[in-house]
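Inputs:
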Amino acid sequence: MPDGAPDLATSVLDVRDLKTVFRTRGGEVHAVNSVSFHLERGELLGVVGESGSGKSVTMMSLIGLLPSPPAENRGGQVLLGGRDLLKVTDDELRAVRGAKIGFIFQDPMTSLNPVFTVGNQIMEPLIRHMGLTKAQARVRAAELLELVGISDAAARIDNYPHQFSGGMRQRVMIAIALSCDPDVLIADEPTTALDVTIQAQILELVKGLRQKLGMAIIWITHDLGVIAGIADRVMVMYGGQVVEQAPVKELFANPQHPYTRALLKTIPSLHGKRAARLQVIEGQPPIMTAAPTACAFRDRCAHRFDRCDRENPLRRPIGASHDVACHWTAGGAHA
Amino acid sequence: MLDAAPKMLVQVRDLKMYFPVYTGILRRHTGDVKAVDGVSFDIAQGETLGLVGESGCGKSTVGRSLLRLYEPTGGSVVIDGEDIATLSPEALRRKRPTMQMVFQDPQASLNPRMTLAEIIGEPLVEHGNLSAQDRLRRIYDLMDQVGLNRRFAGRFPHEFSGGQRQRIGIARALALNPKFIVCDEPIAALDVSIQAQVVNLLEDLQDSLGLTYLFISHDLSMVRHIADRVAVMYLGRIAELSPRDALYDRPLHPYAEALLSAVNEPDPLLARRERIILQGDVPSPARPPKGCNFSTRCPRAFARCHTEKPQLSEVEPGRHVACFLYDTTAQAGSTGRPEDPEHNQQGEPK
């Protein structure tokens, strides 16, 4: 098991060997290549990677949010409460989305419908998934707005999205995602479009809500600073694969994959020692036009050796719930 | 300080950029969006001044009005001895080669129908009289300087990645041997691993060509890396202007303090300082508060902050802060630099 042996009793979500490709005119793009991970109850899993590393696509294919075509699932399992989400019908999947899995998108400006009031948009999933009446849903919607820290919620419920600022719209998105008490919340770069002071507000809010509601969260970001401040465990993605996975303190203290190491070094610190020159990762991230037969990072890796060209490294455990996919880290042992 | 050793290449005094608001059927002028409201600073030759702030604070507008891509509403911008704000169109055109800009979005700032050589060579055609052969030689030189392979000269922008496109933008900015470059969020659209490549390139070019930068960014960690001094803007005005290390060690203005504490340190092992979570949102620049622009969110605001706008003044050597917390004496002599009584944010010495 490359996934550090998940404890089935406590994991709410278990993804195994997920593969997704996009069919394009220029050929296939293998966006998700055998991704496996699990999510425990009440845990916050951070997913980091550059654009094109497959982090968003992985999470969107979990709940069938990718348009098909061009996207196409090529195997794997997504187990939520014992059910494989890749095998259920569209109707069942629709019932899962919103009710069991909430989703927050990156851009709060475009994910709300401008012609409906904010209250309407929060009430919709309540009526659809929770079977509340309109009046009940309205009361609940006001409670949710209050929960995410919008003052004077009862009055603002009838406002339209354009009357809200970016940070407040993201709060509304969070309220919608939380409306049906989901077991899992997937947040795709929820603070990237926001300013740092507003970002800090949202992070505090999510931390507080997590304690209050006890749901599991998957937090996708390219910002290692955010991850350091909020995650329990981190998964690093590169070329559509998970290259390293570890508890957050372990990952920052003891990064193993050359990509993780390089990534941590390229970011200038705000309080630490100021380097005279930034470390760089030379080259460009790959475009996966075929299923990987060699290490995806090899062209940019300082530790490349012959085995890296021949064989795609698999994730292997190297410590307590710390695993890494790298031949070099493994010492090239059994070549 | 102005007449001391380092030559001030850029001197900005009381720069104002208002965008008029017209409302009603008669499109009457009913107000202004005060995007930049009285900003003053200097940049020494070879120095990098970082300009940070949140979206909408006016930092990009400062960069653009500095090069007169907008017509400033008021104030003066002296670059290399000439006031840009009042130059005639022809004189301005002749001045353009000294000052260039690198834009945020390398996708949108490159013409998709021009080849790389045409893009980099265009300023040379416009402002120079090189022969076609010399021009090509210069284009190749520039490509070498920014680390683009000469073989790519005939390719189009879409064939390049974001980082490479930003290199093209930098090569174009360098074509006319500028002295001063405004870098407007040059790395915001790039991935972290590519950001470091571009920042290192900018630093190398500064060393070899003696360039002066205004580096506009919302990324406080990157600004700490590249800038010598940093100006923090809030709602069209400079809240604090300090040397880099002093600012990051001990920010004086409450906004600078909150902004720095809000940044997530990408190392959980470094001691975390108390985070200051500001309440509320930035007010609209069309309707700024009556007193200090930050007074609506400031955790340390007192009565005076709500009635009067603080001026930027030097509270410690080299450190300029616009905040009444540091206003020990209310006399005129304390505003700005003693050599330059004009140097305050409103331009009207009290």
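The CA atoms of residues 104 and 204 of chain A lie 16 Å apart. Flag for discussion at group meeting.
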